[in-house]
Amino acid sequence: PKGITIHFIDTGIDTGPILIQKKIDFDKEDTLKKTYLRLKTELEELFYKSFDKIISKRMIAYPQKGEGSFHYKKDLPKTIKWNLNINKIK
Known about the structure:
The protein has 90 residues and is of the alpha+beta class. Helices cover 27% and strands 12% of the residues. The chain has a two-stranded antiparallel sheet.
């Protein structure tokens, strides 16, 4: 699933306990640029709305399930074509 997550930072890469998540659906016609900007905006809004609860420790974190995923810069194409339709990505 595609979405955003706010979680604590620990010694791993994206492995800390989760505070809040939000699933995001995209249209088939969306481009990499459009999805990137939407995810960034959604994350900023979620953080803004949740900030008081996070800082006052009124949110209960829960452990992540499974391994999750992350990507190194070397895993990305040398040139990112931001106008590439997301349906063309394998």
